[in-house]
Amino acid sequence: MNSFRKTMLVGALVIAFGGGAYAAQPTSDAPRGGDTQNTQRPRDEGKFHEHMAKRQAALHDKLKLTAAQEPAWQTFAASMTPPPRDARPDRNEWKNMSAPDRMEKMLAKMKERETKMGEHLAAMKTFYAQLTPEQQKVFNDNVGKGMGHHHKRDGDGGGHGGRGQRAHQDSSTQPGK
Questions:
Q1: What is the mean pLDDT of residues 44-63?
Q2: Number of other CB atoms surrounding residue 76 within 10 Å
């Protein structure tokens, strides 16, 4: 059998088996594994705030703040404490909305988050300006490094296909990069 025929036979088998697998997919509206919109477990607000307080206390200790810097720290720490989470939107209400209405609602939420981030940034800049260069280095090393990578696995950038921090560091040390 020549190579062209083998290739055609393999292609036909792939299509045949792939079509069978596609036909076997469930047709109900019930969510399938991984298809749910939000599969994360609800956050335990008490534990979350306790964890935040511990991290803030550890940072405070590492910075070795002076008495003159304490008011700026208090303002910064208060601004970084997130408000309680909003209740999840009602799925039936969401499902009954038109696509443009859903998009408008998402855009409004995004604008709220952007406003909050702007407030956090302003508080951070004010506090950062109060720090000595040594304290700024400690702050830089301890704040915001893991943004966007909340579920890191052994430093691989959070399971993002090796495109995380370590992959970036590895590529920056290669010749020609």
A1: 86
A2: 21
